[in-house]
Amino acid sequence: MTKVYRVFATAFLFLSILNTVTSQEKNEKEKDSADTSSLKKYSELLKEGTLKEGLFSVLKVKNDYYFEIPDSLFGREFLIVNKISRVPLQLNEAGLNKGMEFENKVITFQKDTLLGKVWVRTSVPMVTSPEHDAITLSVHNNFSSSILEAFDIKSRNEEKSSFLIKVNKVFDGKEKSFNDVFSNTGLGGAAKPALSYIEAVKTFPGNIMVKSELTTSISEGGAGLPVTIGVACNIVLLPESPMEPRFMDKRIGYFTKKRWYFNDEQHAMKERELITRWRLEPRPEDQARYLRGELVEPRQPIVFYIDPATPEKWRSYIRQGVLDWQEAFEQAGFKNAVIAKEPTEQEPDFDIDDVRYSVITYAASPKSNAMGPSVVDPRSGEILEADIIWWHNVMTSLHSWMRVQTGAIDSKARKNVFDDKHMGEAVRFVSSHEVGHTFGLKHNMGASYAFEVDSLRSPTFTTRMGGTAPSIMDYARYNYVAQPGDGVTAITPRIGIYDKYAIQWGYTWYPSKDKETAKLKKLVEAHTDDPLYFYGEQQSYKNVVDPRSQSEDLGNDAVKAGRYGIENLKRVLDNVVRWTYEEGDTYYRTGKLYMAVIGQWQLYNNHVLNNVGGIYLNNTVHGDHKTSYVPVPYTKQEAAVKYLNEQVFTLPEWLFVNDVLTRTYPLKDSPLGPYEYSPYTMARELQYDVFYNLFRDDRLLRLLEAAVYSDKKTFGVDDLFRSTRDHVFAGTMKGKSLSTFERMAQKNYVDVLIVDLLKLFEKTSKKSLQIPASLQLPTLCNQVVNSETAVRNINYTSIKRVSEVTSVKKGELYTLLQLLQKKKNKGDRTTRMHYLDLMGRIEEAINN
């Protein structure tokens, strides 16, 4: 009897929850009343205007726009996708261009005829619970939607059971609810309705697009500047049945969306991350063939359109960059999965701003970049549409990279202007990289570590492996390791082994979830020990912990790669004037190329530096018996410090004392024109930057911690200070007179320690440290590294007053003071004055 009672009680509970939830959903969908007598007759409105049928039929009466929403779409989820369609010069120059998304949100329309309203609600759909679980009631109450906007019901179409609302206010600048372009682009303020208007409204079976011109006034201490932005607001109907999600595996790099799961059986909420990917599925009639291993075409391929504004000579290269991914999708079982095309006359409705079209948008702009964002259904991770923004000036970055990285081995890369074929191959590379992002792939900065450095000098190896890394999603760039005479020609990154594997993992179709989970696990486990399949998370360039996963590096030995790279940089610098020669021209190009050489040298320095105190962060799971945190081996760290001593702390005179300086200083562009750096100033600042980064607290803490927890010989803080001191103060120890550059290195070393010591009690009265301004070297791809995109967030900080780091830095100053007191009367007068200066600085810092 008790058992029977429990069954009825459970059934009653389920019915109660179901009724409550159903009632809630019904209330959210509609609050109905039969009284429509106060509404304007639909037939009268129709006589006054013109009607376009689509997802919502759109009625235009003079300058007013009405959405006709059918009953069937109340309560359905829509995604608002806002894009830039036009910008004035001021915003273009700031990097805001056509095609860029600036705001997405999920909305539902709720009918309330009792109050004569249509409420628009917005929510963050990241919470899931089983329909009949008790906790679902709490989920509904604790993750409810918010009212975003309200419209008065103006009329009812009895025949189609639909309601009309006037929507002007959310598109013409009066309200920010659907489209807050000025806040979301950082301009602030609000649109001026008198200077803003709706330009056009288009409706299609799955979406509506409203184009507007919105104007504001920006004032920065002077007269107000009018700024008008063209925006396209797309309202997209989301699938009634979301795509089956695939969950993140941290050993493969996909962009993700967070999802929270609640159920009655839990002891705690479960958080998982859905990867973002397109819905690629075989047609029902092809599923059996697909499961037998035959290649089949997907039910819906991924189609990219080439912007008609793209210069014709680059279109084929951009298109080929897209189609290069076909082979990767074949590894996932699909043929012709990716299509790249130009719009034709058979597509009269084509509009770049329409979310039905994934477009590689070409932006006329001084900005030198490209990026590949996607529009994602947050409920499932399904990529609905993608927009690659291709800035015209990205070719200036490509030109600079190829010239400075491959000019020594490739005569085609030495010209002021490359021939179209050579530049076209570079355009193809960037196209492939950005398209990879639109498939959901993140940067894999660890891919290039799979290759032995000397293998990059082998024509056979580089041709067989397809360039510089196993993944085009790395920032591997061009082959700066290969030397003249090696005969290496495969110097451009290509889609590699890791990319094909990642697409296979993300896009292979499985008939059931259980089979999918098992197969995906097996696929990853089959490749975890192969370095060609290694995934290295992108890190902030300011805080690199794992030196295997760095931007712009090549090979598995930064010291060896840096030395090869420097030999090539010397060759480039020897030819800087000749390669940039233009009869009657200024030395602007020469100065720019000279700056690129210096920037590349500093890049190598940072690659090497990050091995000191580095930790290999392995993506481990239970059962694989791998070590999660492995200090960089002693010999690698020792070699890294030796490199820095030889290539940085002994300032390279080939780079900063040479014949080029009789013609031009290194220069970079600025808003005020070319900005020239005196070589001494630049040398001092860049050397200081390396010193400062080498002795950062978190780096020293990692060295100290490794000595505590590692059972192997580790490179320690004493090794670091001794190696650096013995080199920087070698002349002092021998009682020699010091050169200008030797004195510079000693001042930089001492100042880094002093500045840090003065921060011990946060002396805010002291001037804060000024790190040198960026060299503004070419970059690519706006994929931001932050806490939401990074898988690994590791804390290496300390309370400075009680940290061992403070003791060792202060101890090093005492050691230097004793050495200087002993040698203060050695050397020439300039050297002795230098010693007195350093002693005074150290004593003041210690006493304070």
From TrEMBL:
SUPFAM superfamilies: Metalloproteases ('zincins'), catalytic domain. GO terms for molecular function: metallopeptidase activity. Coiled coil: none annotated. Residues 99-283 form the DUF5117 domain. Gene3D superfamilies: Collagenase (Catalytic Domain). Residues 416-733 form the EcxA zinc-binding domain. Pfam families: DUF4953, DUF5117, DUF5118. InterPro entries: DUF5117, DUF5118, EcxA_zinc-bd, MetalloPept_cat_dom_sf, Zn_MMP-like_bac. Residues 40-87 form the DUF5118 domain. PANTHER family: PEPTIDASE M1A AND M12B, ZINC DEPENDENT METALLOPROTEASE DOMAIN LIPOPROTEIN. This is Metalloprotease. It comes from Sinomicrobium oceani.
